[in-house]
Task: inverse folding
């Protein structure tokens, strides 16, 4: 007889970007603090939750803070479980179940390999219509966001994305670590003219403001 997987292969999705976000977050947290943290804390950083612990360690200033707000916590846990199964992440049971990167994670972080995962968490969300429908609405709103921008804002967004790509290549980092798309859209829409204008934009922490603020203003001014 045929097994269930042969008769009905599990749905899969291209989780390359999600995997890079997760792995980047683990890396950035360890670099910033010199110690590793557990899954719950990593989820809070990825999803942009300013918990007391996140604030205590200054992890709300990390480039990876909030970059995973597009996925629910259940989806991130599914991503993490599968990255552990793929030997990219290790759970250190002797150090309070903290997460550590394995050598196989390096190729993903460098963009050399793609990651395909089972759609477990996505399928389970569909079983809960109310929450699932919110996710669908959120996804479609994100897709329509750029269409809602006027011509000037679209030009700024294109220039900002090109600039982000240059900075990412220069530092050998994934583009979303510099700024994720939602932040660039907000900048393009608001057309900030000063560092103070930039301060109120979601995803623009103190460190990013210091590192990239002047450049972002220059790119916006060039688009005017």
Result:
């Amino acid at each position: 007889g045929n097994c269930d997987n042969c008769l009905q292969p599990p749905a899969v999705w291209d989780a390359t970007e999600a995997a890079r976000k997760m792995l980047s977050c683990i890396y950035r947290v360890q670099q910033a603090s010199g110690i590793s943290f557990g899954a719950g804390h990593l989820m809070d950083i990825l999803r942009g939750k300013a918990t007391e612990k996140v604030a205590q360690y200054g992890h709300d200033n990390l480039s990876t803070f909030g970059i995973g707000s597009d996925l629910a916590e259940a989806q991130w846990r599914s991503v993490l479980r599968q990255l552990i199964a793929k030997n990219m992440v290790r759970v250190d049971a002797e150090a309070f179940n903290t997460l550590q990167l394995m050598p196989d994670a390096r190729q993903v972080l460098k963009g050399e390999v793609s990651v395909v995962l089972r759609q477990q968490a996505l399928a389970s969300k569909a079983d809960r219509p109310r929450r699932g429908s919110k996710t669908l609405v959120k996804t479609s709103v994100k897709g329509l966001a750029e269409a809602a921008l006027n011509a000037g804002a679209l030009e700024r967004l294109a220039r900002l994305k090109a600039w982000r790509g240059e900075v990412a290549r220069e530092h050998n980092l994934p583009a979303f670590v510099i700024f994720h798309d939602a932040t660039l859209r907000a900048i393009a829409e608001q057309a900030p003219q000063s560092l103070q204008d930039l301060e109120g934009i979601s995803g623009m922490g103190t460190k990013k403001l210091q590192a990239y603020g002047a450049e972002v203003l220059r790119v916006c001014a060039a688009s005017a």
Notes: The two ends are 66 Å apart (CA to CA).
